[in-house]
Amino acid sequence: MDNIEVFDSPGKGRGLRATKELLSGDVLFSEPPFAAVVFDSLADKICHSCFRRQDKLQRCGQCKFAQYCDKTCQSAGWKEHKLECGAIKAFGAIGDNFGKAPNENIRLAARIMWRLDKEGGVMSDMQMTSLDDLENHISDMPEDDLKELKVDIHNFLDYWPRNSKQHRVDDISHIFGVINCNGFTVSDQRGLNAVGVGLFPNLCLVNHDCWPNCTVILNHGNQSAVNTVYHSQMRIELRALGKIEPGEEVTVSYVDFLNVTEDRQRQLKMHYFFDCTCEHCKGHIKDDLKMGGKVVDGVKVPEEQVKEVTEYSLQMLQKMDKARLEGNYHEVIKICRECMEKQEPVLADTHIYQLRMWSTASEVLAYLQFIDEAADYARKMVDGYNKLYHPCNAHLGMATMRAGVTHWQAGKIEVGHGMICKAYAILQRTHGPTHPITKDLEAMRMQTEMELRMFRENEYIYKSMREAALKNQPMSMMNEPMAESVKNLFRRQKK
């Protein structure tokens, strides 16, 4: 970790700063999780070792809770699972807990405590801070959150084995507080969907900026080898988004920039207990684009009309989210179309409510195989994102990749290839060249480049060959849209 050092950041406590010049895509540090667990809601869908989503998982024969891809993953995960296995089994035999496992916060806290007990609280060479030094913000918690904390502590004491080292309630409370404001969202292999929560102590030292100079990406490593000796560990990587000078503080964004200043500040205050004073918050930069009205022939749509459609859009977004959670995708599209019909003549193409409708419509229409229409909305979404996001933002890269693939599926090879190339350039920096997503995207780029050459040489032959290929191998259904997407860096337990 000779790229960075810990320093006292004015008004922010401790932070990290660069010790030498860094360029876009450089890795400042990588860090394996101190501990990580799968979400309760996905416990039977995600491997508890490699955090991959699988159709068929093998359940632990003892606790009946942990699930694994195969015996290889079970062996790899045994080091973390062996202590909790009996504890989960015993917890599920207690009164009201019968047949249940403790929630993800309790399971994560227990894994942290077991590791601390084993290592005697001594920091590893890679760790720049001890867990005792991390803020727990318990004194800042609202009353409802404190009640939830007390319930978690009570259940933790039921869960914690009597033959393990016993801890003071204050120490347990501290760990829960640290998890509450520093639990990192663990994504699946595709990097789009949140599947778990983990604790990465070094990452907790990186302060927030709404327009940061770094990004954090989860790399699952290689866990496909039959022999677990050859596995590479899951880790987070802190990567530079542009040139960083020696002595400059390194920052990441804890929340998605695709929110207006007021909403970002509210999220940061509620979840992380600080007031953001970054340049983009002080200047309300790009808020006018995010909530703006359309300009028609040089004339802006009246503010009252923009406000009316904005309020209507918010109501429709709530209805759309409900239908999406229920898996009623035809209803989702119906809501989107009704809403977009009112939005498009009034709202700017950077209005965040219109962007959300375009994003959802493109994803769900692609799943329902209305590919041409999905591609049109995906293009509008990316055009809007390009005006709002940092040019190396990981969300922008992933959205551009999705739009490029949708255009390719629609047979729009020129636009599709251009988007895939742009996404590849972004993800090379944010994810790195060895990340599975980047490798997949590189294969797509080579495929579309070859098809584009064929298209330019003879458009008729290219389309004929494509048509024949699709007849012999019909286009498969897209993955079902997921409601739990990765948007915020740190993740609090849902109440």
From TrEMBL:
One of its GO terms (biological process) is sarcomere organization. Its EC number is 2.1.1.354. Residues 2-255 form the SET domain. It is an enzyme of class 2 (transferase). InterPro entries: H3K4_H4K5_MeTrfase, SET_dom, SET_dom_sf, SMYD1_SET, TPR-like_helical_dom_sf, Znf_MYND. CDD domains: SET_SMYD1 (cd10526). Keywords: Metal-binding, Methyltransferase, S-adenosyl-L-methionine, Transferase, Zinc, Zinc-finger. This is [histone H3]-lysine(4) N-trimethyltransferase.
